[in-house]
Amino acid sequence: MTITAARIERRALSRSAVVVGLLGLLLVVVVASLMWGARDVAAAEVWRALVDPVAGNNDHAVVRDERLPRTVIGLIGGAALGAAGALMQGVTRNPIADPGLLGLNSGASLGVITAIAGFGVSTVQGYLWFAFLGAAVAAVVVYGASSLGWEGVTPVKLALVGAAFSATATSLITIVLLSDANTLDEFRFWQVGSLANRTTTFFTTVVPFVLPFVVVGLLLALASGRVLNALSLGDDVARSLGQDVARGRLLVVLAVVVLCGSAVSLVGPIAFVGLVVPHVARLLTGPDYRWIVALSMLLGPVVLLVADVVGRLLVPGELEAGLVVAVIGAPVLLLIVRQSKAVAS
């Protein structure tokens, strides 16, 4: 066996071990999400609630009607946010990019504001359609504006136009919120991002609609790995390797729209998951985006569910997962940046 072949084999074994380890960690987090909260339920009782529920048993009702739906939604939303963040950092070649950079979160928020103020929508199920539509419109506007000019779409133009769109959408949102107290009351609970109140009804009515979009988005994300590897070398090098840069970038942006719109519809505009998770994946697997995207799909649910469980245990009532992720994500990101600088030097 040659030295190169041995190195490739060791790297494959190492990545396989990382995947197995993350799957085990995800299983532990899922069990913790089903067990812990304002009312702790033993692991054996959780198992019985899932396989042989007893009518009238309060522990079984808590597990099946409250914690199981929010855990599954956390898995779906976390995978979508993690993958979307990895795609964003790859397509923009920006290490601090996340779905909010292209204005997708702002577009989704503007859609929800439109639903509340313009159409009187007051349910999460109703927000779903408007959040998804808002994210899609934001992507079309940003990508379309970025494609103007002789050089077409570039990472810098995507970031600048996305920032401009976010600023405009945020201003419109602020104007509506300041002028309508009822809209502010409805919007502020969705804005912080949460897995709370994800009941069986929400699970059975919303998830069947969103899940196909998430599956399609994740498949597109996995298919984008080679494109992102080529784009990471620069557009000119990517073209010399036979890559259609415009089509590849459009594929990635489409995947981001589908994933971000779906995730925001389910859990709200939660920040830092899509920002921090790809950095952790990159530390575990290296610069290959085929693996970064795949690991981000596993790390995203871990981060989101851990934040949800911590939010349940931290205060007597409950702290929204979006707030916990922000508190945890900021120092983790600073640590990653510091470690990256140390490695570079």
Automatic annotation (TrEMBL):
Whether Transmembrane counts among this entry's keywords is yes
Q: What InterPro entries does the entry give?
A: ABC_BtuC-like, ABC_transptr_permease_BtuC
* CDD domains per record: TM_ABC_iron-siderophores_like
Q: Which residue ranges run through the membrane?
A: 12-38, 68-88, 100-121, 127-146, 158-179, 199-223, 250-277, 289-307, 319-337
Keywords, in A-Z order: Cell membrane, Membrane, Transmembrane, Transmembrane helix, Transport
Question: Where does the record place it?
Answer: Cell membrane
Keyword field contains Transmembrane: yes
Entries under Pfam families matching the protein: FecCD
Q: Using the UniProt record, give the first listed, main subcellular location.
A: membrane
Q: Which domain of life is it from?
A: Bacteria
Q: How does it sit in the membrane?
A: Multi-pass membrane protein
Give the family from UniProt: Belongs to the binding-protein-dependent transport system permease family. FecCD subfamily.
Name of this chain's protein: Iron chelate uptake ABC transporter family permease subunit
Organism, scientific name? Nocardioides marinquilinus
